[in-house]
Amino acid sequence: MLKHHIKASVYLAAQGLAFRGHNQGQGGANRGNFVELVTVLGEFSSNAMVNKAVTDFNPVFSGLSSDIQNDLILCLYEHLAGEIKRRIAAAPFLSVMADETTDISNMSQMAVSVRLVHEGTVCEYLVDLVDVSSDRTAETLTACICESLKFVGITKDSMIIGQSYDGASNMAGSMNSVQVNLQKIWPYAEFVHCYAHKWALVAQSASKRIPDVSLFFGFLHNLTKFFRASPKRATLLTSALLAASSTRWLSRGKSVSTVSSKFSELCHVLARVSTNSEGFDSGACAEAKGLVMQLRSVKNVFLLMLFRKIF
Fold first, then answer.
1. Which of 37, 132, 181, 251 has CB atoms 3.0–4.6 Å from 245's, for a disulfide?
2. How far apart are CA 223 and CA 304, in angstroms?
3. Domain residue limits, the chain
């Protein structure tokens, strides 16, 4: 029965799904992913004990309680952490990566990862998520990284040969930063600016220096915003346009590809809106007329084709 529950836990963890719902009681309409999955699997199980435990009320033990779920999650975590520690201990060289981001609850979290070679394959493992909302100074972030690395068995004697972050001054500065502080602990830990972040900065800087390119990406932003701002307009398209992030330049490549593939459809829809044939307000009609003229311009068509090739 425990094996049956473990398989359900592994599945939910691998898919990144929540275990519990609002009401896990016997009469609940939706008792959460774990209970519902275990129940469905139990109905088809050849094991009578499993079948009875999940389909009938068992006052002794069913393995469906919140405490049991937490125990299973903790066991999975400890098993994976143990395997990561074993691979770290066997690796002759290690690199450290860290990045901070703010989640939807406005909590600033720093992800700490380790990069190594295991049996000829380059592997990266997330070892910790640290709440750094209250303090993001270089000293505090350094202490958090060291504490996270200590948990997986990385000490002062470990051979750290690399560290990689974005270009923020508290992470990558040449005077008082995380990379400088860590080099005092691990002298061979050479800092490498994250290449994806560096490429994004190069592309962003280059686009700002070329007025036509800067205007082109501004046009793509306005085009996407025009449809995403109104459900009525969005329904005129067969699929939604992807919004372009201001910092993640890969999203601009996806936006270029989408607009390029939907070029004819976008021209047709914008023309329909501009003629006010379906009761749109005058502001939307005027905006659509301006957008379709920009979309059909030789300059923007050329840049659309060019950046589709580049991205």
1. 251
2. 13
3. 2-77, 91-193, 199-310
Which ranges constitute the DSSP H helices of the chain? Answer: 2-15, 33-43, 48-55, 66-90, 138-151, 169-172, 178-185, 195-209, 211-228, 231-234, 250-261, 263-274, 282-296, 298-310
Q: State the pLDDT at residue 136.
A: 87
Token pair 């109104």 is at which residue?
Answer: 230
Q: In what order do the strands lie in the sheet with 94-102?
A: 121-131, 108-118, 94-102, 160-165, 190-193
CATH label, 91-193, candidates 3.30.420, 1.10.150, 1.10.8, 2.130.10: 3.30.420
Q: pTM higher than 0.70, yes or no?
A: no
Nearest residue to 265 (alpha-carbon basis) of 300, 285, 239, 286: 239
What are the b/e assignments for 106-125, b being 16+ CB within 10 Å? eeebbebbbbbeeeeeeeeb
If one compares 182 and 22, the residue with the highest pLDDT of the two is 182
Residues in the chain, total: 311
* Kind plus residue range of the DSSP H or E element containing 116: strand 108-118
What is d(CA 167, CA 161) in angstroms, rounded to the nearest whole number?
19
Q: What is the pLDDT of residue 25?
A: 66
Question: Which one has a higher pLDDT value, 65 or 188?
Answer: 188
Average pLDDT, the chain: 86
